[in-house]
């Protein structure tokens, strides 16, 4: 592969973006590929925006410039809209169908766009939508939504699915390995049907 493959993972505090970036880093190490990553946390403890930059095979800094990401993985539909400018026109977005309405919307009496409006605003992208909450529950835990999303996005990464699954096993707590393996596989299958 020539040049880097840049992945931006976005969500809100508590959704597991940092764990997801750790899984990608572990997969890169297992494949012997250089990787750089960085996280930025905006009031993550209060449900604020969190972004994780992962650059595979890159030679330069850890942060991805707007308009340059190869893949955007959004754990929240509103965060997909907030960070879509990191993708070039026609860029690849894998997003969760669900979103958490920010507290500021209630405090400031703002209106929230519905799913159809958000998806219309993302219409110029190569879009894969996954209902991670339903799939994670099927896998055995709603807390595995981040691994569902990684499974779905794995179809569009330059890393082997087997390597990513081994990295999931290495990064999640031992008692949750079986649930997370299932979450990854179900997410990958869901993206294949989109």
Account of the 3D structure:
By secondary structure, the protein is α/β, with parallel strands linked by helices. The protein has a single domain (5-193), classed as Pyruvate-ferredoxin Oxidoreductase, domain 3, CATH 3.40.920.10. The protein has 8 helices and 6 strands; from the N terminus they run βαβββαβααβαααα. The protein has helices at 17-30, 77-83, 103-107, 115-121, 132-139, 145-153, 161-171, 177-193; strands spanning 5-12, 35-41, 49-56, 71-74, 92-96, 126-130. A 6-stranded mixed sheet has the order 2-3-1-4-5-6, with helices on both faces. A hairpin with a 7-residue loop joins strand 2 and strand 3. Helix 5 (132-139) packs across helix 8 (177-193). The chain is globular. The two termini are 26 Å apart. The relative contact order is 0.17. The model has no long low-confidence stretch (mean pLDDT 90). This is Indolepyruvate ferredoxin oxidoreductase subunit beta. It comes from Methanoculleus frigidifontis. Keywords: Oxidoreductase. Residues 13-188 form the Pyruvate/ketoisovalerate oxidoreductase catalytic domain. Pfam families: POR (PF01558).
């Amino acid at each position: 592969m020539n040049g880097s493959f840049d992945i931006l993972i976005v969500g809100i505090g508590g959704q597991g973006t940092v764990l997801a970036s750790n899984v990608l880093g572990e997969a890169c190490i297992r494949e012997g590929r250089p990787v750089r990553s960085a996280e930025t946390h905006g009031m993550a403890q209060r449900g604020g925006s969190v972004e994780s930059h992962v650059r595979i095979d890159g030679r330069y800094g850890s942060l991805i410039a707007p308009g340059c990401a190869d893949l955007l993985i959004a754990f929240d539909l509103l965060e997909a809209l907030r960070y879509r400018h990191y993708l070039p026109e026609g860029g690849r977005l894998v997003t969760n169908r669900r979103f958490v309405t920010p507290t500021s919307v209630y405090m400031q009496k703002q209106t929230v766009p519905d799913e159809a409006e958000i998806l219309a605003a993302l219409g110029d992208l190569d879009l894969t939508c996954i209902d991670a909450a339903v799939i994670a529950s099927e896998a055995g835990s709603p807390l595995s939504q981040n691994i569902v999303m990684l499974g779905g996005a794995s179809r569009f990464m330059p890393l082997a699915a087997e390597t990513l699954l081994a990295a999931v096993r290495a990064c999640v707590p031992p008692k949750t390995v079986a649930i997370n393996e299932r979450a990854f596989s179900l997410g990958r299958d869901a993206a294949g049907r989109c």
